[in-house]
């Protein structure tokens, strides 16, 4: 699919969800245009500067008059809360899992004492970065997300289920289990290995965001940067599923 058609389709969906958000009289871009740029930022999986050069050289005409680079991405950060509008509704059954995202090479750990990245295990190997948790529904759409440093246990992400008021039965692996003498009352079904093949749906989703959206390693260094990237990533994933009518045929959206 041509890139300009991808951007236009994304904009149409974003604009429908943001009809009630008014444009500031002095602003160059409508809020829906800024959110569209944020969604494309998550889809392309590159840095701010590279994305701005790419937009400016190829697709600036689609957005009228682009502001200066730093101003544009301050606007993208300001519009980050609107990504919650693109999260899906829970269904009877959900799936919860985490993916490790690298920030720096393990040999560089500790060089910056202010770094948010921490050392932890992901897929049986050590990384220095963060963990991203997704709670998806039966259609594969993202219901809720959360990130924490990579040194925390998956049990810390159980509160994602609590945020939705026990409305769905959530399948999770043994990393989310509690001790035998603990019970927080959350409807989480701990699945043994080689059971409940429904959980492969979230593995497919993580495979897409790792290989297609280049999210296995990111270059953000602040909590705000992670919030913006992961918020738009979840919105982007749900928007693409809307375009493909819920089918995981996302390879057409490589840009």
Structure explained in plain terms:
The longest helix is centred in the last third of the chain and has 21 residues. The model has no long low-confidence stretch (mean pLDDT 88). Helix 2 packs across helix 7. It is built from 7 helices and 6 strands. Strands 1, 2, 3, 4, 5 and 6 form a 6-stranded mixed beta sheet that branches. By secondary structure, the protein is an alpha/beta fold. A hairpin with a 2-residue loop joins strand 2 and strand 3. The chain is globular, with a radius of gyration of 19 Å.
Could you give a quick summary of the protein structure above?
The chain is built from 7 helices and 6 strands. 34% of the residues lie in helices and 18% in strands.
Biggest β-sheet description: 6 strands, mixed
Query: Mean pLDDT, rounded to whole units?
Result: 88
C-alpha Rg (nearest Å): 19 Å
Report the count of strand segments.
Answer: 6
Order of helices and strands: HHHHEEEEHEEHH
Shape annotation: globular
Distance between the termini: 9 Å
Helix fraction? 25-40%
Total helix count?
7
Q: Segments where pLDDT lies below 50 for 5+ residues?
A: none
Strand content: 15-25%
Itemize the secondary structure elements and their pairings.
Blueprint: H1 3-17, H2 31-44, H3 48-58, H4 69-78, E1 93-104, E2 118-122, E3 125-137, E4 142-149, H5 159-162, E5 169-172, E6 188-190, H6 200-211, H7 223-243
Parallel strand pairs: 1-5, 5-6
Antiparallel strand pairs: 1-3, 2-3, 3-4
Helix pairs in contact: 1-2, 1-7, 2-4, 2-7
């Amino acid at each position: 699919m041509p890139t300009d058609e991808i951007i236009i389709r994304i904009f149409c969906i974003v604009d429908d969800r943001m009809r009630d958000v008014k444009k500031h009289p002095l602003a160059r871009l409508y809020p829906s245009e800024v959110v569209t740029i944020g969604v494309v930022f998550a889809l392309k999986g590159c840095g701010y500067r590279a994305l701005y050069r790419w937009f400016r050289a190829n697709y600036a005409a689609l957005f009228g008059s682009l502001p200066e680079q730093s101003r544009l991405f301050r606007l993208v950060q300001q519009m980050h809360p609107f990504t919650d509008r693109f999260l899906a509704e829970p269904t009877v059954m959900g799936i919860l899992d985490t993916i490790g995202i690298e920030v720096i090479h393990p040999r560089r750990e500790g060089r910056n004492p202010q770094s948010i990245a921490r050392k932890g295990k992901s897929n049986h190997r050590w990384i220095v970065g963060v963990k991203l948790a997704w709670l998806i529904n039966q259609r594969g759409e993202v219901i809720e997300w959360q990130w924490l440093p990579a040194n925390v246990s998956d049990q810390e992400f159980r509160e994602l289920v609590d945020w939705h008021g026990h409305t769905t039965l959530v399948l999770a692996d043994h990393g989310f289990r509690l001790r035998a003498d603990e019970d927080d009352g959350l409807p989480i079904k701990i699945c043994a290995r080689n059971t409940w093949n429904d959980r492969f749906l979230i593995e497919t989703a993580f495979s897409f965001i790792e290989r297609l959206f280049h999210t296995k390693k990111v270059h953000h260094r602040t909590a705000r940067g992670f919030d913006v990237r992961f918020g738009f990533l979840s919105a982007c994933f749900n928007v693409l599923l809307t375009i493909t009518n819920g089918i995981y045929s996302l390879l057409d959206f490589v840009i």
